[in-house]
Amino acid sequence: MTIREAFDFSLELKAKVINERSLKDYFYSTNAVVKWVKENKPKIKTIDQFTKKIALEFLNSVLLKSTARNRNNYRLNLSSLMQTLEDNEIIASNPMRKISVLKSTPKRNQTYSANEQEDIFKYLEKEDPPILLLYIKFISYNLLRPIEVCRLKIKDFDLKNNTIKFKAKNSPLKTKIIPKIILKELPDLSKLNPENFLFTPIKLGGAWDATENNRRDYFSKRFKTVVKEKFNLDNNHGLYSFRHTFITKLYRALAQSTSPHAAKSELMSITGHSSMQALEKYLRDIDAELPNDYSDLL
């Protein structure tokens, strides 16, 4: 079986168990490795000839042209596909699995200061209609990820119980309450088509023939044009930063009146993290938990 045929076989199986975004990433990775082999190792034709040594040479070429993180992503995608080939006895073993992950520094979206956040909200209130501001408030007040906001349809809202249902990062279907602070800003949803998306480029509650990734990219680009350029924000500040900002704000407010563990327990029910360990790691990553002044100890 040729390298292309083997990866296509694996992709066909993966299409049944992974989401559209991941499948596109996998397909892109296979295209890159097939092209590299054709240009640099033309004598290698079949998948069983794709050894650990050849795999490492490909990953090194990616590293030299980009970053350790990008190289690790290629390794992860290709290893998953080749593991499927091993499981189906098309190859004897997965060569990518034997290659180490390189240490890399992940990109982190920084939180906004209180003044930055307030200034952005005031500026966006001038928008007509204020679609981008409401989009950001769902990230901020409902603590949804940008892609999760893009998935919201009119039918996902239960205004009798003030809840929404959506596909989350760590579960196929999650239910969250809609806090009063955002409920009052929702338009009248009762007359809208239940299958329409809440957020579209031109209005709240409309049809939008685009993939969820393209919908997310639209709002990311709109935020860059309308907000980032206006406020001269760097690459570390984006839409995701609002989620970090308001989770930090919530945690610090809760921690003022109760123990850290109790504050985290309540916060976990709000953010939707799957475990206390995951929440604690997240809080460390965004520097939400800071010590008291320790000057008297010095």
Automatic annotation (TrEMBL):
Signal peptide stretch: none
Keywords on record: DNA recombination, DNA-binding
GO biological processes: DNA integration; DNA recombination
Top-level division of the source organism's lineage: Bacteria
GO molecular function, one term: DNA binding
Membrane-spanning intervals of the chain: none
Annotated ranges, domain Tyr recombinase: 107-295
InterPro entries: DNA_brk_join_enz, Integrase-like_cat_sf, Integrase_catalytic, Integrase_recombinase_N, Tyrosine_recombinase_XerCD
PROSITE patterns reported for this sequence: TYR_RECOMBINASE
Keyword Transcription set for record: no
Pfam entry (one): Phage_integrase
Name of the protein in its database record: Tyr recombinase domain-containing protein
